[in-house]
Amino acid sequence: MNTRSLPAHILTASDLSAGYGDRAVLNGLDLTVPPGRITAIVGANACGKSTLLRSLSRLLSPRRGQVLLDGRSIHRTPPRRLAQVLGLLPQSPVAPEGITVADLVSRGRHPHHGMLSRWSRKDDEAVAAALEATRTTALAERPVDELSGGQRQRVWIAMALAQQTDLLLLDEPTTFLDISHQVEVLDLLTDLNRSRGTTIVMVLHDLNLAARYADFLVAMADGRLHVSGTPETVLTEANIRHVFGLDSRIITDPVSDRPMMLPIGRHRSTGKPD
């Protein structure tokens, strides 16, 4: 149960179509993000997961339909106001050359500053808390471009946390991380959701981690929302076959008691060769 309730902001996509140049990616997609919950977007490569996240964050303008925040088009919301409510960690972000970890994470505080406002103790506390939560405090004075891929990913997550938004969108936040750090990041996001009520939407490739950590799954196929709902609703053998073209078996995860997908490949025997 959340120990502190944030405003129940409602993020909605209505008849959303979007793409790049002449290429259409999303086709008439409808989605309401459950407020105060963790949502994971899953699907095969090139199905439109990142395009959906970019559209929900206003980085990409729709060709048809709209994205609404609390009933108002996000394209009509002032940028600073939107950045105070909605944060985004895009896929493979690029840091300015030579910037230190502390300076990059501090940039997460920019939406909270007006033309005349000064850096405050609250800003210091937000940055320190973000560094501590992602275990990057010891890296604070190091240039970001000298870090490993996994370290950089945790620093970018720290910047998103320092922004302290009510909605947080993350495109593959576990990229470049080994399994222990993947679990650590997902535990961190779960803590954030439970302690502050932050609405979290993330693109994940690992179906079983998505089912373990998310309250709500969105499974996409060919630019459309194929099915959405609880992990028990979405992770079925029929849905896995439709979305991924993969035969599978669904069992119960012994750790989380959520569904777990076991892929079936061509080589099914576990016996030793003669």
TrEMBL record:
Alphabetically ordered keywords of this record: ATP-binding, Cell membrane, Ion transport, Iron, Iron transport, Membrane, Nucleotide-binding, Transport
ABC transporter domain ranges (all copies): 11-247
GO biological process, one term: iron ion transport
GO cellular component, as recorded: plasma membrane
Pfam families: ABC_tran (PF00005)
Top-level taxon of the source organism: Bacteria
Gene3D superfamilies linked to this entry: P-loop containing nucleotide triphosphate hydrolases (3.40.50.300)
GO MF annotations in UniProt: ATP binding; ATP hydrolysis activity
Bilayer disposition of the protein: Peripheral membrane protein
InterPro entries to which the protein is assigned, alphabetical: AAA+_ATPase, ABC_transporter-like_ATP-bd, ABC_transporter-like_CS, P-loop_NTPase, Siderophore_ABC-ATPase
Subcellular compartments: Cell membrane
Xref: SUPFAM superfamilies: P-loop containing nucleoside triphosphate hydrolases (SSF52540)
PANTHER family reported for this sequence: IRON(3+)-HYDROXAMATE IMPORT ATP-BINDING PROTEIN FHUC
Membership in a protein family: Belongs to the ABC transporter superfamily.
Listed name of the protein: Iron complex transport system ATP-binding protein
Species of provenance: Paracoccus alcaliphilus
Lineage: Bacteria, Pseudomonadati, Pseudomonadota, Alphaproteobacteria, Rhodobacterales
